Structure formats: structure tokens, C-alpha cells
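Exercise 7.
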Amino acid sequence: MPGKIVLIRPQNIYNYNNYPPLSLISLGSRLRSAGYTVKIIDTAFEKDHLKAIGDELDGALLAGVTLLTSEVPDTYRIVKFVKEHSNVPVVAGGWHCTLFPEQMASSSYIDYVVVGEGEEHIVKIANALQNGGTPEKAIFPKEMLDLDTLPCPEYDMDTNLERFITSTLTDKFPESVSKPIRWLPYESSRGCPSQCTFCINVVTNNNLKYRKKSALKVVDELEYIVNKFGITHVKMIEDNFFVDIRRARGICEGIIRKGIKITWDGESRCDYFNDRILNDETLDLCRRSGLVQLALGIESGSPHTLEIMKKGITPEQAEHAVMKCNEHGIFARSSFMIEVPGETSEDIKKTIMFINRLRRYPFFTCGIGTFRPYPRCELTEGLIKNGFLREPDKLEAWIDEDIIRLYTSAEYARPWQVDGKYAENVSYYINMESAVRLGNHQIPRSIDRLKNNIFIFIAKIRNRLMFYRFPIDKKIYAKFLTNFYKKLSVKDKKTGG
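Solution. The predicted structure, written as C-alpha cells, is:
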């Protein structure tokens, strides 16, 4: 009889955990289809997650952990614990492993490392161990999967699923929905063919090839998920939903034909808004199928900065995309980045002015942060070459949280920045005006909504004047936010939430 597999989601240093572990759910679904028993442990919901892991190790065939760079410290604690308290083999995967497979494999606490997609590799490893053998290699290289062969994700493997389904989204569109949203993320494709210099896909050459589930499979899985879990909203978690526009249209047509009552949101490039791809007819079809929001990677209002990034778009194309979203009643959740290596203070000001101009579109909303030097991307390699960064050479060196924040934090003072404090304040006030930290639909008390609106109004005035000195209101808001979440926590405890 096939054995038990323990899959572990480590905690990240930012205590951010508002999405279910979709990668583990996909791995677990594939393992289940091969006959294995799967236990997912989401460490964020365990009072003592090492004990919870230890309780599951008895009789386990292997323990699998998937990690981002921000999850290295907890991952290290976990794999060390597993190896010191059992003979269970440890398999590691995820983006950090794809970036640094040799570093991960050299750790005495890790037996096997998977690069890229892991659904087939983990079954191969499990089969070898189940048959009393040992997998023939420590590092399993990337392989591109046919996504149509993967089983439908079995979300209920995560015992905390209902917490995620009923959690409040920070997006803007829920303010326009009359009833509480029940949502789940869903992945219909992988990869993006774009060549952005800050993107991890380009770094590893692992995710440039676009892979997709057929429109028929997507619609069938959406229908199953919606019916089983009572979902009203689906977040398409992928790099670029519209690479294959025929497939995208087929999905929309299938949702309408089957009468699947959902709203959904996805991601698109700005230059796709043209007569060939996202024209008015297609946008109308998407809207009728339930599309309420598109994430647009605008990144900058400066042509110079966009050229540095190799975004392949212009500010004019970005504004056209926002305008078209607005015409069709689709929220344009746009991302921006400042303090990109090589840009000037004038470039940053152009981005602020561009955002101010886009505010005239009612369905425009945005988030902004300072450039994060993701490991191995082109811009990061340039910073290392010029002495602004050093890259850790082993797993243990990544445990330092200051190093992790230097690489991954959206708000962090870095040595190459033009004016780090200014950029930090710009990010705060632009995000505040967009209510990306706390939206009114997330606030139950009217007095707290009033206070929140006052801070939003102050941010709006500051942004129009481009005045970011003396941020006293920013400090007051931090106290308001702390007190708000304290009161919310007390209420949850009283109601058993």
C-alpha cells in the first residue's frame, strides 16, 4: 500500500499568509492520483508547527517543503527538525530551490531538490522510496509538464481552506459587490514569454515557455470547484492569462454557456489592449463572463525606466489599457515600481505624475513599491557586479532576515536608491490613496471607516501636490491600523473566528 506524504508550507518573515498553498495542493493532488495519502501542514495555523510536523512523521514516506526566499529561515528550522528527529527523507522545491539548487542540495538536512515544476518529480521520488530504493540523483532538473494531464486541484486537502475562502480581499472590486465574497485562487496556465529584466521567469529560463490547460478543462474544473465549495469569485493566479486569446475567449464562452455564476480577475500586459487581442468585443465577452478586475503591470510612467526594465510598453499604451478597462467597468489594478537601478529622481516624479493623471479614471487603482532585487534577475546581477549587493553562497547564509529583506521587501532602504526615504513616503501615500492596505469594505464600524477616509483624503492631497515631507499623519495611521487589528482580533476570539 502506498505510504503517507507530508507536505509542509513554511512561514515567511513577513507573516503574510492570505492565499492557500496552491503549489502544495497541486503536488498533493498529483500524489493522491498516484495512490498516496497526503497530509498538508500550513505552519502559519499551528501553535507549535514543529510539534505538528513531528506528529505526522511516524510512518511517513517523505516530507516535502516548497519555499520562497522569504521562507528560508523557517524552512531551515523545519528540515533540521525533520532530519534530527526522524529518518524521513526531505524533498525541497519552489522558487528558491529553482534559483539555487546546488546550495539547497549541499545542505545535510535536504535529500532531494526539485527544480521547476514538481508534480511528476515528486511522484517519481515517492515511487522509488516506496519500492525500497533510492532516487538516482539529488537534484531533479526542470521539466515542462502538459497541464492537461494534471488532476483537478483538491483544495480540501488544506484543512484551513474555509479560512481562506471567507477571508477579505484587499482588492478594490469587492466594494462594488453586494454580498460577501467566497473566493479561491486557480491556475489555468504557467509561464510568460515576456523578457522583463526584473522578473524571475527570465532569470531561470524556467517559466518563459507558456503552458496552458485547455479551455474545456478549465471550464470543467471551475464548474466543479464552484459547486463543491460554494465559490463566488475566482482569482486567476498566473503570469499572463491572455497569451492565447482564443483559449481565453473559449474559457469566457464556456463560463457563460454553462451558467457558472462567478466573478473573476486575472492579469494582462498593457500592450494586449489592441484590435487583435483585447479589443472591445473580447472585453465585453470577458465582462459578461464575470471579469471584474485586471492586474496591469504598468511599473513606471517614465519611458526611460520602462526601457531599463525591458517592459516593451509605453506610458501611452498603459493609459489606453486603463481607459479601456474603465469603459467596460473593469477595475484596473495597476502595479508600479520606483527606485529601479539606473532611474533618476526625475523618472520617479514622472511616475507620480502619471499615476495622478490615471486617477481620473474611476476604475483605476494601483499599488507601488520600491524595486526588489529578486535573486539572479538581470538588474540584480548588475547590482552585485557594481558592489551594491552580495549573494549568499549557501542555504545557511540565507537565514539572515536582513539579507532576505534586502532582496525581497517592497519597502526597504537600499544603497543604490536615489532617495530611499522619499521613495518610502511616496509608496505609502500612493498606496494609501488606493486603500491597498485597508479598504472600507473591510471595516465594520462606521467611525473607523470615517477615520480611514480622512487618511485617504490626506494622502490624495499630498499626492496631487507631490508633497511628502513631515509625514506625521503616516505615523498616526500606523497607530490606527495597529489598534484596528487589535480590536478585530479580540472580536474574532469572542466569536470563535
